[in-house]
Amino acid sequence: MRTPQLVAVALSALLAQNGVSAKEMVPDAATSALYDSGVIHERLMAKKHATWDRQRASGAMNSSQYQSYRQPGAGEFSAQAFVPCTNGVATVVAGNAMQTFKCKNIDYYDFVSHANLGSRTGEGSSSWGWTSPTGREFVVIAQADGAAFAEITSAGKLVYLGRLPQASGAATSIWREIRGYKNYIVIGSEAVNHGIQVFDMSKLLTANPASPTTYSVTADVTSVWNGLPNGRTHNVVINEEKNYAVAVGAQPRTSTCRSGLIFIDLVDPKNPKTLGCAAGDGYVHDAQCLVYRGPDTRYVGRDICYGYNEDTLTIYDVTNKNSTTIISRTSYTGASYTHQGWVTDPMNQQFLVLDDELDEENRVGPAAQGRPITYFWDIRTLTAPRQTGYFRSSATGIDHNQFVVDGFTYQSNYGSGLRVLDLRSLPTTPTGASVTEAAFFDVYPEDDAQGGVVDFVGTWSHYPFFKSGYILVNTIERGAFVLKRTT
Ligand SMILES: *[C@@H]1O[C@H](CO)[C@@H](O)[C@H](O)[C@H]1NC(C)=O
Ligand SMILES: *[C@@H]1O[C@H](CO)[C@@H](O)[C@H](O)[C@H]1NC(C)=O
C-alpha cells in the first residue's frame, strides 16, 4: 500500500508523538515498516527531483553562468588573493548580490564552475580529498557526468586536472558519492549498472593542468566492483583501518542484503571482494564504521558501524562480516529521515552528531520552524544511546552532511551553506546548551532575500580534513568553492 494517504497518516502519527523536548524513543513498529517499504525515501527523492527539475527549467543548473573567480585562459588570478569575510559578507563582485556571500569567520579563496571543472551536465553532489605523501592537496568533485579532479594550491586556488566519467553503461546521475581509501577514491552512484569505481589518486601527481585528462573508465581505473544487486548504491563508506568499504542503500530493498551494509574487502584494491552483508535493519542511508574506542568496555576493539537508517540510529557489531549483530536501534523525537552523522571523536567514541533530512520540511519536533537541527547523542553505552539535546540553527534550511574535525562539526546545510558548530563543550554539557555556531559561509545567496528556503539547493557536500585548513564545498548548481576559516 504505497499511497499518499498512508504517508500522510504515518507523518501525522509522527507529529502526534512529538513532545516538547527532544528525546530518544523506542522505534514504532508500524512507522519502521513504512520506512522499510521505501515509500518515504521515494517521496524524498521525488521532492528533490521536483526541485532540480524546476532549477533546470529556470536555467539555474546551467553552471556556465556562474563566473569562476579565475577564468581559465584569462591568465592571472583575480586581483585579490582571497576575499575576506568582512562585516558579515564576502564581497566577490561589489554591487552584485549573487556574488556577495553572507559569512562569519570564513573567507573565500576560489570558486570554479562545474563547466570550468570539465562537466557538460553540471549538478554537483559529493566531494572528497586526498593528501599526497609530500603534502599536495587534491580533491574530487562529483557531478552528474562524473568526478572532476583538481588540486588546491598553497594559495587556495582550485586547479582543474581532469575527470573520471560515470561508469561504462550507466546513465548520468546527480547521486554520486565519493570517499577516500588510502591513496584511492571509491565512487558509487544511484545510476543502475554503475557499480563501484576505484581510482588511484596518485595518477594525479603527474597530471598537467594545461591539458586536463579524461581518464578511461576501463583502462585507467584500479577496479570496478560489480557485486551490487543492480549496480546502484546510495553511498559508500570506508573503514580504512580495517581495509574495507561498505555500500549502503544499494537497491533494490528486496535484494538479499535488503539495502543494508554490503562489505567490500579492499586489501587488494585491484580485486575488491565480497565479505558479506548486514541486512538486519534493512535500508541504511549512511554509516560510519570504526574500530570501537570508547567507554563501553564490552565493545573495545570490535568493528562497529553507526547506521543512519531513515527512522533510527542503528548501531551494529560487524566484526564478523557474515554474521553481524545489531547492538541497538533507537529513534527520537522528530525523526523524519535519519540521514547521516559522525562521532565527535573516533579515538574516544562518547558522542555523535546526527542530521535528519526531512524534519525541517515536515516541520516536526525541534525542526518545526524549518531551521536545521543538529541532534546530539550520548553513545557511552552502545546498547542504550541517549539523545541528549540539539542545536537549532538561526538560519532557515535543511541539514545534509557533516564531519567533525577537532571538536568542530562542519556541515553542508543546502541553501544556508557551510556551517561550523563548536562541539567542544558536549562532554561536560551533553544537552548542547553550550554549543555555538563558530563560523559559516552561505554559498547560496539566491535565497537570501526570502530569508532562506527549506529546499534541496546550494551545498551538498564539503571536505574539511585538509591540514592547510582549506575547505572544499561542492554545490548543486554552481560548482566548487575553496573556503578557509578566518585565522
Ligand atoms: C548557459 O549560460 C551561458 C552563459 O550565460 C550561455 O552562454 C549559454 O547559452 C547557456 N546555455 C543554455 C543551454 O542556456
Ligand atoms: C562470507 O560471505 C561471503 C559472501 O557470501 C563469502 O564469499 C565468504 O566466503 C564468507 N566468509 C566466511 C568467512 O564465511
From TrEMBL:
Keywords per UniProt: Signal
Superkingdom in the source lineage: Eukaryota
Signal peptide region: 1-22
InterPro entries hit by this protein: Choice_anch_B
Can you list the GO cellular component terms from the UniProt entry? extracellular region
Q: Which PANTHER family match?
A: REGULATORY P DOMAIN-CONTAINING PROTEIN
Q: What is this protein called?
A: Regulatory P domain-containing protein
Provide the species name: Bombardia bombarda
